[in-house]
Amino acid sequence: MATVTTRNGINVDQLVATIGAIQATPDVAKMTFKATTEWREGTHSIAKVGTFEHAGKTDTSRSAGQFELQGDEPPVLLGNNHGPNAVELCLAALGFCYAVGFVANAAAKGIELEDLTYEVEGDIDLHAFLGLKRSADRPGFTEIRVRGRVRAKNATREDLESLCQYVQDTSPVGDILAHPVPLKVDLDVA
Amino acid sequence: MATVTTRNGINVDQLVATIGAIQATPDVAKMTFKATTEWREGTHSIAKVGTFEHAGKTDTSRSAGQFELQGDEPPVLLGNNHGPNAVELCLAALGFCYAVGFVANAAAKGIELEDLTYEVEGDIDLHAFLGLKRSADRPGFTEIRVRGRVRAKNATREDLESLCQYVQDTSPVGDILAHPVPLKVDLDVA
C-alpha cells in the first residue's frame, strides 16, 4: 500500500514530484496569476481572483472570480473601512509568502512546525501620493520590518534561523518588494 | 449652511483639508501600517489587519485584527484553495491602489467617473522559489501587466490618459513593486 508523506500539512511526495517535473520540463514552472479590481464608490473597490495560467493552460481548480476581496481606506484617508487598504494587503501578502515558504521548506527538511507567525509593518509618508513630493519622498514604503516567531518540535535554533534566511532569499513577494519589477500599464477609455 | 463637496464618493473638502494639514505639519503624513499572518496548516494561513499608526498615534477607527484574510495555494502548488495566494494578493493590491489614486485625483480635478476597473496579471517562474535557480531566475514576478478601463462623464481621453499616468507615478503599491524597498527580518525561536 502506498503511503503519502505529509508533514506540516504539506504533501511532501507531491512537492518532490513537482520539483522532478520542473527539472524534466522547465516550462512546468511558468505561471501567470491574475486579479481584477472593480471600483465601487469613493475609496471602496472589490477585487476578484480566480483562474490562473500554468504551463500555458488555464488551471481548473477554481471558478472565475472565486475569491472576492474588499479594499478601502480608513476615514482619515477618506474611506469607510470596508476592508484593508492596498499597502496593508501587500504586508499581509509578504507574511503569507514567508509562511508558505517556511512551512514547505521545513516539510522538505523533516522539520515539524508547531506555530509560525509573521508580524509585518511598513512606514509610508503621504507627501508623494498627495502630490506634495519633496526631494527625497517616494510614494510607497520607506521600510518594511518583519518579526517571525516559530516553534518547532525537532529543529535547532540554527536550523530555523538558516531556514528563515533561505525563505527570505527565495520568497516571491519578498523579491518583488526588495527588487524592481517591470510594470506595463495600458488604459482603455470607453 | 455648509455643504460638503462629494465627487465619486470622495469628500473633496476633506481631501483639500488633509493636504493643507500636511503642508502645515509634515509629520501628519507619516503612517505605519501592519498585518499579522498566522499559519494554520499546510499552505493555509490567515492574516489580520486592524489598527495602524498615524502621526505617532494609533488610529482608533478599527478594532485590532478587524479584517481577516485567508491565504492559500491551489492544489498544483500543494494547497486547498482556501484563499488567493500571496502573489495574487499583490496583484489585487496594485489594482486597489491604482483605483484609489484614480478616483481621488479625478475627484480633485472635477472629473466624474462612471466605471473604473483594473485587470492585473503577472508572470512568475517557480524555479527560484523551489531552489532550482538558474542564472537569470528570480523568485518573483518577471513582469506585471495592467489594463485599466475607465468611463467618465466629463473628461477627454487626454485628461484620463494623463490622470492614469499621474496615478502610476504616485501609487504607493506601484512604487514598491517598481522600486526596491528595504526589508528587515528578525526571527524569534520559541
Task: Tag the structure with descriptive keywords.
alpha+beta, five-stranded antiparallel sheet, 190 residues, homodimer, two-stranded antiparallel sheet, 4 helices
Residue runs with pLDDT of under 50 for 5 or more positions of chain A: none
**Helix and strand pattern of chain A:** EEHEEEEEHEEHHE
Oligomer: homodimer
Radius of gyration of chain A: 20 Å
Strand fraction of chain A: 25-35%
The count of DSSP E runs of length 2 or more, i.e. the number of strands of chain A, is 10
What gross morphology of chain A would you assign? globular
Structural class by helix and strand composition of chain A? alpha+beta
* Largest interface (CB < 8 Å): A-B, 128 and 129 residues
The major beta sheet of chain A can be summarized as: 5 strands, antiparallel
Instruction: Report the total helices of chain A.
Output: 4
What is the terminal separation of chain A in angstroms?
61 Å
Mean pLDDT, all residues of chain A: 96
Q: Walk across the major sheet of chain A and give the strand order.
A: 6-5-3-4-7
Fraction of residues in helix of chain A = 25-40%
